[in-house]
Design goal:
alpha+beta; 12-stranded mixed β-sheet; 15 helices; 32% helix; 20% strand
Amino acid sequence: MGNLSEFDEYLEFLCKGLGHADRHRSLADYCHGLMLPIERKSVEPMAAHVDPIHVGAKHQALHHFVAKSDWSDEIIMGRVMEWVLPELEVENGRYWIIDDTGFPKKGKCSVGVARQYCGQLGKQDNCQVAVSLSLATEIGSVPVGYQLYLPKDWAGDVERRAKAGVPEAIAFATKPQIALSLIRRAQKRGVPSGFVLADAGYGSDTAFRDGLTELNLPYVVGVTSQASVWAPGVEPLPPKPRKQIGRSPKLLRRAPGHEPSSVRMLALEWPAENWREVSWREGTNAMLMSRFAFVRIRPSHRDYWRTSVREEEWLLVEWPEGEDAPTKYWLSTLPSDIPLEELVRIAKMRWRIERDYQELKQEFGLGHFEGRGWRGFHHHATLCIAAYGFLMTARLKGDGSQKNSSELPSSGLPKSYRPRGSRAGSASCTRFDPNITFADCQSDRETFAKMPVLWAAGIGKHSFVTQ
């Protein structure tokens, strides 16, 4: 079966989760638009490429479908996972990767927009931020949960909430709280569980780590250098002895000279023989390697309000050669007999989420939605993830064999057509390879012609090609 018929089969599979047959055409058209190698993947340019003869009507239909239509993001995301799951080889090790991503945004009316840290810009600026959960294995990954972070100012603003259509059930929640919510929903849907991986923005939150433990999910999460722990073999003091009158003290204690230490200070005290050079995967030009050490410790965050000591965990530290101090720290509840090399490899698996976001933004227009509402923001993201899910499956199935190609109808767009929102003087990538990102593309079309591609598109003609 060629990839065109497989894509149609995939869209039909997704449409079964929409609830109404009159939504099927719009889902198919929207996903086709997201798969086309056009620069801007907001509703207007996609409508112009999908149906250039009836642009106005198609624009209206797609806008209503993504911004107004009441279909379930969770059901469609679940069907995307069902489609990709058989190809992910989940029996060989699974990871649940938590992260967030920002979208620069002007004004103050778009849902959730506020001045906050934006990873895309690397600084504080006006943006929207969404938290995601991805299911990953050694060979691929796909998002299985996605939710907008609603800042406190937005969560308490009744007027703006009403205009943006924020559901009444959505209250203010921190990003780690949103992440736990995504994880609980994934468990409820039956997503195969795995080791939870997250950066220090989540791992430094003790309630987040405790929540993972309550859900019986082992984790490897980043923490800041100031995270407080008890050194190996050291614990908080037991409760004070009971006095003759009053209740028996139950809380653990600290005392001068018997206090926890920051992970940075602890790591700086380790002898040189504690550090070992470990490699974890093949990089672009060479094997990725660094120096690591790990020890068993007990987290100490506010344990003076506890009646029992916390369980031991791994503290993993990276100190690259030539650096003045360690650069990264992780806490982990993986088994106490795990080798250092294996713990490092698992901690470094979080890199996969970076590729997810890169491709979702660069190739599928994750940040191109121009509406202001809660529903539209999430519907657009769900459809981008759906398109990405098909691409991921095509990669995992790829065996290098030649298959028949099929053509989509010509768009008939003139070369001078510039959709609203396009940057002047820029051009879209004209070939779409399932094994590279748009950033890898060059302007030389002779080079493109030699590449195995999933999509091939000229200015006035769109062809669906497989290899």
